[in-house]
Specification:
2 copies of one chain form a homodimer. Chain A is α+β, with helices and mostly antiparallel strands and about 350 residues long. Chain A contains 10 helices and 18 strands. The longest helix of chain A is centred in the middle third of the chain and has 21 residues.
C-alpha cells in the first residue's frame, strides 16, 4: 500500500502542495486501508496520519499500520483543532483539501479553525487520478468480484420464471451473490421487466417478469472494497422481431465500442462508436446515458466513457484502467435493452473481464 | 407530502429566504418522494421543481407528482444553467443552498454559473429540522421497520451456534430481514464476538461466536426509505460474573436514560444519565460514543443524545421525535456490551418502540 502514498506524494510535489487532507472515505481506504465510517487522512511529504474518533482507534491501528496512530483524534478535540496542531508541528502553512468531497459547511469550520495559520487550497481528483489505473492487487480483486458476478448471472437466469416478481428475482440474485462469497451487491440490484426496462435505473417492484418481454438485469458483487458491474438483457419465452432488432443493435454497438478500447483512445471516442451506431439505427434519442464508466472502489469513477460538453475534452485511456462498456436503447411503453461488460485496458487493446454468456440472435 | 413543502416554505419565510436548492438525496425524497440516485429540488415560495437528467425523467413524473416535471434538466444543460434559468423566470436574485450537503467543488461551479445574477446563501439543517419531528405516515413506517427488526432478532438469536462465524451470523440476520419484508438492512449488520465486541463498529469476519463470550448484535430493517436500529448483547452458553456485572450496568444505564426521555429534556441530559451511571461503575473510559441518536430516513440524524462540547448546548426533545438509546461498555481484550432500543417521544414521556426480548440477569 506504501506505493500509493508515494504516488500521491509525487502528485503533491508536482503541484507544489505540502500536504493533503483526505476526506473521501474511498480515497482514505485506498491510501491507508482504513475502512471505518469516520476518519480523515493527513498526508504530508514526510508524514502520514489517520484522524478518527475513539470508536475506531483500535481499528485504525490494525488496518492502517503505515499511518501514525498517536495522532488520532480524541473525544472533544475537533477536527480543525487537530489539523491545526499537526500543521504547526510539521511547519505547514498551506494544506490542500478535496473540494469534491468536502462540504461547504465542513470547509467553513476548517477554515475558521485554521484561521490565518494555515491556508486551505482546493484540489479535485488528485487521488481519483491515481485510482484510475489499477495496480496488480486491485486487478486481482476485480477479477474475483467479476468472476463471482458472472457465475451468479449464469446460475440464476435459468431459475427465473414468468411468475416471479422483479423483487423476488432481485432476492435470488442477492442470495446467490452472498453464497458465492460477495460481501453484498455493489449497488441495489436492478431487475426491470417489460415497460419498466425503459427506465435505465428502475427500482424493482411487484411487477411480474412475464413471458416474451424484455428483462434487464444489472448487478455486481462487492468484495474487499471493490465492485463488479454486469448487465444482461433476457427474455423468458420467445422474443419477437422488434426485440431482436433492438437487441442486435445494442450488441453490435457494445462489441464495436469494446473493439475501440486501447491506450491513447479518448474516453468520448469510445462513446461515439456506440452512439453513432445506435443513432444510425434510428435510436439516437433512446440512449440517454454514457457508454461506460471506470469502476473500482467506486461503482462509477473516472474515466467516464461519454460525450463531452461543447468545447470539452476527455482523457485518453491508459493501460490498467478498468471500465464498463454498456450501451442501451430505452423506449417508453415498450421496454429497453442494455448489455454491459467490464474491460481492462492492456498495452495493445483490452481484455474483456466479464465472461457471463449473453443472448445471441 | 404537501404539508412538508408547506413547512419548508414557512421556515424559508422565517429566515427571509426566497427559495432553497435541495441537494441531499434524503431531503429530496422527504420533500418530494423522488428517490432516484441523481436529482435536485428547487423550491421557491410558490413553485417546486425537480431537476434531474434523462435517466430519471419518467421516474420523477411518477414519484413526485407535486413537483413540476417540465423543468427537468435536459442532457447537455448543466445544473447551474438550469438553476439560473429558473431563478430568472421567477425573479429570484438570492437562493439558499444546503451547505452541509453541497461540496466546495459543486458550490464553486454553481456560483460561477449564477454569476452576479443570483447570490447563493448557505443554510444548514433547514430540512433536517423538519425531519426531526416525525409525522403520522413516518411513525407508521418506523413502527413497521422496528417490528420486522424485533421479529428477526427474536427468530435468529436462538439459531446462533458457537461454531458459526460472525459473517455466517450476519447472513442469517440478513436473510431473515429480507424474508420478513425489509428491502435490506439499514446498515451493514454488526455481529462482534468476544474481544471483537470491544470495537463498537466492528466489521464481522471469520471469528467464531464461541461459547461463554459476549456477542454484540446490531442491525435493523430498511423499508420505504426508513431505518430501524436494534442492539442486543447475548452469550451462547454460560456468561461469567464479570459479564453480568457489566451487562447489568449497561442495562440499568439504558433503562434510566429511557425513563428520562420526555419533551423539554435536552438531548445531552439523557446522555448524562447513562454516562454518569456508567462512570460511577468505573467504566467512564469505556463508553466512547453518545447515548443515542435520532433515526428516520437517515440512520443517524438529529437529535443526537450525547455530551456537548464546552460551552455548547443541545436541543430540547419534542413530541414526535424518534431516538435510539444505546449505552455501551467496551473493554479492549475482553469485549463489550451494548443495549439499544428506539423510543418515540410523546406528550408525557416516551413509548419504547423496540419490543425484542433482552437478556436479563
Amino acid at each position: 500500500m506504501e506505493h500509493r502514498t508515494r504516488r500521491l506524494r509525487a502528485a503533491l510535489a508536482e503541484t507544489d502542495l505540502p500536504g493533503l487532507l483526505v476526506g473521501a472515505p474511498v480515497n482514505r481506504r485506498y491510501l491507508s486501508g482504513f475502512t471505518a465510517s469516520y476518519g480523515w487522512l493527513l498526508i504530508t511529504r514526510t508524514n502520514a496520519f489517520v484522524l478518527t474518533d475513539s470508536r475506531y482507534l483500535i481499528q485504525a491501528g490494525r488496518e492502517a499500520p503505515g499511518f501514525a496512530a498517536r495522532q488520532i483524534i480524541n473525544p472533544g478535540k475537533t477536527l480543525p483543532e487537530l489539523v491545526l496542531e499537526l500543521c504547526q508541528e510539521f511547519g505547514l502553512d498551506r494544506l490542500a483539501f478535496e473540494a469534491g468531497h468536502t462540504t461547504v459547511a465542513d470547509h467553513g469550520r476548517l477554515a475558521a479553525g485554521l484561521g490565518d495559520a494555515v491556508a486551505l487550497e482546493p484540489t479535485e481528483g488528485l487521488v481519483e487520478e491515481l485510482r484510475m489505473v489499477k495496480d496488480e492487487a486491485e486487478i486481482a480483486v476485480m477479477r474475483r468480484a467479476i468472476a463471482i458476478t458472472d457465475g451468479v448471472m449464469e446460475a440464476v437466469v435459468p431459475q427465473l420464471r414468468p411468475e416471479h416478481t422483479e423483487r423476488q428475482a432481485v432476492w435470488l440474485f442477492e442470495q446467490a451473490l452472498r453464497k458465492a462469497g460477495a460481501e453484498g451487491p455493489s449497488f441495489p440490484i436492478i431487475v426491470a421487466a417489460g415497460s419498466n426496462a425503459a427506465l435505465p435505473h428502475h427500482r424493482p417492484g411487484d411487477d411480474l417478469l412475464g413471458e416474451g418481454q424484455t428483462i434487464i438485469i444489472d448487478m455486481g458483487a462487492h468484495i474487499d472494497g471493490y465492485n463488479a458491474d454486469l448487465t444482461r438483457t433476457v427474455v423468458l419465452g420467445q422474443p419477437d422481431e422488434r426485440f431482436w432488432a433492438i437487441y442486435n443493435t445494442v450488441l453490435e454497438a457494445e462489441q464495436r465500442a469494446i473493439a475501440e478500447v486501447r491506450p491513447g483512445v479518448r474516453a468520448h471516442e469510445v462513446d461515439a462508436i456506440a452512439r453513432d451506431l445506435i443513432t444510425a439505427a434510428g435510436h439516437g434519442n433512446h440512449f440517454g446515458h454514457g457508454t461506460g464508466h471506470g469502476i473500482g472502489m467506486n461503482l462509477h469513477e473516472a474515466p467516464f466513457l461519454r460525450w463531452t460538453t461543447p468545447g470539452g475534452t476527455s482523457i485518453p485511456l491508459e493501460t490498467g484502467m478498468i471500465s464498463s462498456v454498456e450501451p442501451g436503447i430505452y423506449i417508453e411503453g415498450w421496454g429497453g435493452v442494455r448489455i454491459e461488460d467490464l474491460v481492462l485496458v492492456t498495452d495493445d487493446g483490452c481484455v474483456i473481464l466479464s465472461q457471463a454468456v449473453k443472448l445471441s440472435g
